[in-house]
Amino acid sequence: MQFEPFSPKQRAVLTWWCETSPWKDREAIICDGAVRSGKTLCTGLSFFCWAMARFHGCAFGVCGKTVISLRRNLIRSLLPALRQLGFRCTEKLSQNLITVSFGKRENTFHLFGGRDESSAALIQGVTLAGVLLDEVALMPRSFVEQALARCSVPGSRLWFSCNPEGPEHWFYKEWICKQEEHKVLYLHFTMADNPALTPDIIERYARSYSGTFYRRFVLGEWAAAEGLVYDFFDESWRKPVPPGPMERWCISCDYGTVNPASFGLWGRNNGIWYRVKEYYYDSRREGRQKTDGEYAADLRRLAGDRPVELVVADPSAASFIETLRREGWRVVKAENDVLSGIRTTAQLLREGKLVICQGCEDSMREFSRYCWDTRAKGDRVRKEYDHAMDEIRYFAVTVAAREHRQPFGVGFVERNIF
Asked: Which Pfam family name is an example for this entry (predicted)?
């Protein structure tokens, strides 16, 4: 791993618990702010160093939204950094367990996923000396509070990192707004706090977001969602279908009987996915509902003689999926995390990796009307003009994004912690 010097804020994260630190009496740390601001790996590195410096024979919790995302976002880069510092790390994948030793000390680190309310049961019963919650704003409150309740070992501390959400989010109101009450060290990060990012890279990230997501992920603000969801996207973004053959073909589907049904035909050319054609049927407007078989026939007509290799379908459309599979289509259920999917779709559109072509009138109409629900508590989109929006999101997350799937100073850690 290539190491770079720490920024002042990263140094504060690494040493806040040390005896020489002015924050040594704090019981928790929160690192929030912009994406790629250098907070995640630095927080993880400090957590493991603190655990190994202060405890022996204890258990700790490391939590993410899912164990898979935790491994991808933190563990994959953290373990090589720890080994470079001299730690011996043994990972037991089947048990979601990491054993770390340094000198005569050894501790165990359990990996947990806090996907939904039921996840709280996964962490019940274990006694922890400390817990790190990565992307805590994406976890349900019940899971977070259960994890904190497990930290009953004397000297235990709490570690949080996240990107901002809305100002009504429970974590913002309960922990950031009440930081003194909870004896928290709160550090807000921007991209300037990551020495590994060049100005060109920072500028590229700034181009990838707009509106609410720009305020949250570039400026690092806990900003409310309002206005159009894709506020940057208008007619000027539409492009003609590129000449020549496509490398791959896929179809995305949002199924509806009473509500409209929307299908999109996607072709891949030079690494870019083009929505070249679409189908949209509103049963209320037409005065007649269609059967699964009729929709399957419409999908065949949309595909034509193109070699469509995959149909990405609304995961709730069980009967329609079964109909398509019986007719020989290869069908996958779409990933359906709405907010994460919207962020991914917006980023792919802005980067030009997802293109809506001329002739796709129904999706363009929905882009111009798809809004945040300002009356809802938390981030929600209004349940209207969202059928093409849903199936475009299904395709973006399930297919397009999968094709396009930090550095610290070792000497500083060794001098200041061990």
From this structure: Terminase_6N
The count of C-alpha atoms lying within 13 angstroms of the C-alpha of 112, restricted to the half-sphere facing its C-beta, is 29
| Residue 403, Ramachandran bin (φ over 0: left; ψ between -120 and 50: alpha; else beta) | alpha
For residues 367 and 238, the answer to whether their CB atoms sit within 8 Å is no
Instruction: Report the C-alpha gap between 89 and 71 in whole angstroms.
Output: 14
Cβ–Cβ under 8 Å, residues 31 and 13: yes
Kindly report the backbone phi and psi dihedral angles of residue 92, in degrees, each rounded to the nearest multiple of 5, phi listed first: -110, 95
The pLDDT tens digits of the residues spanning 17-37 come to 999 999 999 999 999 999 999
406 has pLDDT over 50: no
**Residues 391, 260: Cα–Cα separation, whole Å:** 12
For residues 245 and 254, the answer to whether their CB atoms sit within 8 Å is no
pLDDT band of 414, cuts 50, 70, 90: very low
pLDDT digits (tens, 9 = 90+) for 209-259: 888 889 999 999 999 889 999 999 999 999 999 999 999 999 999 999 889
What secondary structure does DSSP assign to 25-55, as a single string?
Answer: T-SEEEEEESTTSS-HHHHHHHHHHHHHHH-
The structure tokens 């799937």 sit at 405
Q: Of 147, 157, 187, nearest to 10 (Cα)?
A: 187
112, 126 contact by CB (below 8 A): no
Nearest to 4 by CA among 417, 414, 406: 406
pLDDT grade for 58, boundaries at 50, 70 and 90: very high
pTM reported for the whole predicted model? 0.76
Residue 81 has pLDDT above 70, yes or no: yes
Nearest to 163 by CA among 201, 220, 214: 220
